[in-house]
Amino acid sequence: MSEDFIYFLWQFQYFRTTDLRTVEGEAVRVIHPGFRNPDAGPDFTQARLFIGEVEWAGTVEAHVRAADWLVHRHQYDRAYDNVILHIVWDKDPVFLQRSDGTVIPTLCLSEWADVTLLQRYQTLLAESGVIPCAGRITTVEPVRLTAMFDTVLLKRLERKAAGVKVLYHRVDQDWEETTYQLLAAAFGFQVNTEPFAQLSRQVPLKILLKHRDNPMQLEAMLFGTAGLLNSEKPDEYEAVLQREYQFLAAKYQLLTRKLPAYSWKWSKLRPANFPTLRLAQLVKLLASTGSLFSYLIETSNSAVLLKQLQVTPSAYWQSHYRFGKTSEKVLATLGQTAAENLIVNAIVPLLMAYSHHKDWPDYRERAVGLLEQLPAENNRITRIWQGLNIPVRTAFDSQASIELYKMYCQSKKCLSCQIGVSLLK
User: Fold this and answer.
1) Shortest CA distance to 189 belongs to which of 101, 264, 108, 98?
2) Are 76 and 87 in contact (CB under 8 A)?
3) What is the sign of the dihedral through the CA atoms of 14, 16, 18 and 21?
4) Nearest to residue 398, comparing CAs of 382, 387, 417?
5) Which positions of the chain have pLDDT values less than 50?
6) What does DSSP say about strands 54-62 and 83-88: parallel, antiparallel, or unpaired?
């Protein structure tokens, strides 16, 4: 038995309510079970019910056993003085009191709940697959699947927007700098996200913008600070960058900000995803776009955004993946899938955060619209859902499916999922 199951029973009133009584023998009639409280304090707020002949309004607390109230020391917490009903599963001989000594009525749900509901829940939890309801999910009404995808997608976007807001305040409320650091981290494409993020913090956009008309100097500052200009016998181009870096690093006090070369990961990466090439592509994007922030938030057409993002770096990187190593076939231009990834993981969260900042729903709708325009991501999680015949066609679907899998399925939060709840009824 888990408290989650008790929350589920109480929230949806999935128990026999006829002649409902507390363990003390008082009649109970629920007017409203209250709202689930995601924060600290009692589990349900704004509940209304009759106990005996008296109407009560307040909070409701749930535990597996009545004694858990004492284990959690709620009797000493004034936040629980407003509890009007204690709901439990196991009936144990414990009579509870508030901090002022008044008795709290207790309702034992195991005496009123349908045992088959518990059996279905336990069967669901016992499933060993990565998706607990995999064997039955095709029986769920499409409208419920859609509703849950909508719910988790919004939660995912809100969480990402909150991260952007933290970044925005960290960079002194500068949207251009926020955009730059957000994009830079996204250019790491998971494997090198952290060193790209660190690099963008070490070389602020305001310094780079002073040299926007000279991409070679941008490369010098970024490659040098990244710790990637370290060849003892550099080729001609790297030697030029080394000299430029020494001059510019001294000018802008960048020498002490250099990242260790070992910060970057190369193992198991395709050459097209080497951090050197990704960094050269980022430089090209910075040099070819005026106000990145304004451009990105005001462009609602995914095709236009993709074209702008699919940059081709400087000539050197059209024949090299790494310094000093010439390659005949270099896929230098940022590919379509990579550009789509940047929109999903940087531009969409930026739009959501700006929508909150300005309280303009248009930007939120633009963010969702971009996800609906882009094709679904192809990864292990999306393939799991597709293997269950769940349609994952757009980036909206793939982002929702990833959120559902990571935040609900992996931890078996079936009782918080509309799909799981529908299978238990």
Assistant:
1) 264
2) no
3) negative
4) 382
5) none
6) parallel
CA 196 to chain centre: 19
DSSP 408: I
Query: Looking at this protein, which amino acid is placed at residue 154?
Result: L
Query: What is the reported pLDDT for 29?
Result: 95
pLDDT for 77 equals 85
What is the reported pTM? 0.85
> Alpha helix locations (H) across 289-417?
292-298, 302-309, 336-342, 348-358, 361-373, 380-387, 395-404
Is 193 in a helix, a strand, or coil? Answer: helix
Delimit the domains of the chain by residue range.
Answer: 3-113, 175-343
pLDDT tens by residue, 374-401: 999 999 999 999 999 999 999 999 999 9
Reported for 125-133, long-range contacts at CB under 8 A and 24+ positions apart, including other chains, are: 125/412, 125/414, 130/384, 130/405, 130/409, 130/410, 131/384, 131/385, 131/388, 131/405, 131/409, 132/409, 132/412, 132/414, 132/420, 133/414, 133/419, 133/420, 133/423
Per-chain mean pLDDT for the chain: 93
pLDDT at 114: 85
The confidence score (pLDDT) of residue 87 equals 95
